[in-house]
């Protein structure tokens, strides 16, 4: 892991170089390949989906099995552990309870003959992409489906790839538990194209959600405008702030947990003590040996891992806001004071026991969070992402006469005579 000192005059420029190094991993050839796939799906529809499914997933699909049958959905039975499924059910309850608090309320204002209102309504149809194969994440089903259901979305469509004809049984179990029946066994950029533009078998949706690899992310970016998207998710990241009073093995494990996701994942430690940093690095070397993904972890930490030494945690809030991390874990004693001055973080975890993994799975918060610095302008997935708002204006004659002259003057300034006419004609040419 690269060691930086916050007091160095070149600190922010050095930090910027490391952060940019990770963002420069985008390969233009991916966008080009994805564009071809999207255009092919638009042109050839189901036939293109069938060919890409065999090419990328080793699964033969056609019009008869593109949409999963109830028999296929129920095939998870006898393939899952009941205690594990009960754990997922606890997560469902907690995530539902947390997200119900987010649902907005309509409101209206009335003054001098003018009534203005705000109406919140769910998006009519959404497509949820759930990764499959070796990178299947059943928890993504919970995090995407529940806010959609709480928002009141009527048509919830799921696209998930089958790997050589097989779909993760826990993914199927959770979709069944949450009463999702429109499930297509397609993945990759071709799935995003089908959801955005539709085919003979797949009816298009209004907005697309869900994580995926670089090809899925590129596809979402390219179909945006035709449909809405949740966000462009990059590799995961965490910033851990820990003082010397913490257990170095615990902190090491928090950094490892993020690094195991991807070689492009980024784990950053900010501490006030150089000796503690060394103990954490030593603990990482010890703990990583016992993990099956040690090769991925080592590459992630060696290429993008950072240890920042900040004396007395000076400027730490400024550093955090500059990074704008997806996950922020505050394990320092001054965390309650620090959190008041932090604006840019997708999700914040407070205290030594609040491992980020709890947010990934069970406590109720959503694990779909902004990455790559986008926490500066966006938030984690929630109920509002599955809704849209409409303003309503109602006016009687009193409201008209109270406002018409002001509107006419404002329209004159902008040289919009038609606007002025639409107001004045109601006074001149009375019905």
How would you portray this structure in words?
The structure is a single chain. The chain has 3 domains: 140 residues, Rossmann fold, CATH 3.40.50.1980; 202 residues, Nitrogenase molybdenum iron protein domain (Rossmann fold); 33 residues, no CATH class. The chain contains 17 helices and 14 strands. The chain has a 6-stranded parallel β-sheet with strand order 1-11-10-9-12-13, sandwiched between helices. Strands 6-5-4-7-8 form a 5-stranded parallel β-sheet, sandwiched between helices. α2 packs across α9, α3 packs antiparallel against α8 and α6 runs parallel beside α7. The protein starts with a strand and ends with a helix. The model has no long low-confidence stretch (mean pLDDT 94).
Strand content: 15-25%
Radius of gyration: 26 Å
Number of helices, counting only DSSP H or I runs of 4 residues or more: 17
Largest sheet: 6 strands, parallel
Which shape, going by the Cα principal axes?
Answer: globular
Distance between the termini: 77 Å
* CATH level 1 name of the largest domain: Alpha Beta
- Kindly state the number of beta strands: 14
CATH topology of the largest domain: Rossmann fold
Task: List the topology elements.
Layout: E1 2-5, H1 11-23, H2 28-44, H3 46-57, H4 70-73, H5 82-100, E2 107-111, E3 114-122, E4 125-129, H6 138-151, E5 155-159, H7 169-177, E6 183-184, H8 188-197, E7 207-209, H9 214-223, E8 228-229, E9 237-241, H10 248-259, E10 266-271, H11 274-287, H12 294-304, E11 306-309, H13 316-323, E12 327-330, H14 335-339, E13 347-350, H15 356-361, E14 387-395, H16 397-413, H17 417-428
Helix pairs in contact: 2-3, 2-8, 2-9, 3-8, 5-6, 6-7, 8-9, 10-11, 16-17
């Amino acid at each position: 892991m690269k060691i930086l000192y916050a007091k160095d005059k070149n600190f922010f420029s050095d930090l910027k170089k490391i952060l940019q190094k990770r963002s420069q991993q985008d390969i233009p050839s991916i966008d080009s390949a994805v564009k071809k796939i999207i255009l092919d799906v638009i042109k050839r529809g189901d036939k293109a989906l069938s060919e890409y499914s065999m090419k990328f997933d080793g699964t033969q699909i056609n019009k008869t099995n593109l949409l999963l049958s109830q028999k296929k959905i129920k095939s998870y039975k006898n393939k899952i552990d009941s205690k594990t499924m009960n754990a997922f059910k606890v997560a469902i309850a907690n995530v539902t309870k947390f997200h119900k608090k987010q649902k907005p309320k309509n409101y209206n204002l009335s003054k001098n003959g003018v009534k203005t209102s705000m109406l919140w309504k769910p998006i009519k149809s959404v497509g949820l992409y759930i990764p499959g194969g070796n990178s299947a994440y059943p928890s993504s089903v919970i995090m995407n489906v529940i806010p959609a259901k709480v928002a009141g979305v009527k048509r919830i469509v799921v696209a998930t790839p089958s790997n050589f004809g097989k779909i993760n049984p826990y993914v199927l179990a959770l979709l069944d538990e949450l009463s999702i029946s429109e499930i297509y066994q397609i993945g990759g950029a071709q799935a995003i194209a089908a959801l955005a533009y539709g085919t003979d078998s797949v009816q298009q949706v209004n907005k697309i959600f869900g994580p995926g690899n670089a090809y899925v992310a590129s596809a979402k970016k390219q179909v945006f405008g035709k449909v809405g998207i949740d966000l462009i998710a990059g590799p995961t990241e965490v910033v851990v702030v820990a003082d010397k009073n913490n257990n170095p093995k615990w902190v090491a494990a928090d950094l490892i947990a993020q690094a195991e996701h991807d070689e492009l994942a980024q784990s950053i430690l900010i501490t006030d003590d150089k000796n503690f940093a060394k103990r954490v690095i030593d603990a990482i070397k010890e703990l990583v040996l016992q993990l099956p993904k040690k090769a991925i972890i080592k590459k992630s930490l060696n290429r993008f891992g950072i240890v920042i030494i900040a004396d007395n945690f000076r400027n730490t809030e400024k550093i955090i806001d500059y990074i704008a991390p997806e996950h922020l874990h505050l394990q320092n004693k001054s965390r309650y004071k620090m959190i008041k001055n932090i604006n840019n973080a997708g999700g914040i975890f407070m205290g030594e026991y609040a491992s980020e993994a709890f947010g990934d799975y069970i406590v109720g918060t959503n694990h779909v969070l902004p990455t790559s610095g986008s926490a500066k302008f966006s938030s984690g997935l929630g109920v509002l992402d599955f809704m849209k708002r409409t303003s309503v204006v109602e006016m009687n004659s009193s409201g008209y006469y109270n406002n018409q002259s002001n509107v006419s003057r404002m329209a004159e300034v902008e040289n919009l005579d038609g606007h002025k006419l639409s107001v004045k004609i109601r006074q001149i040419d009375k019905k």
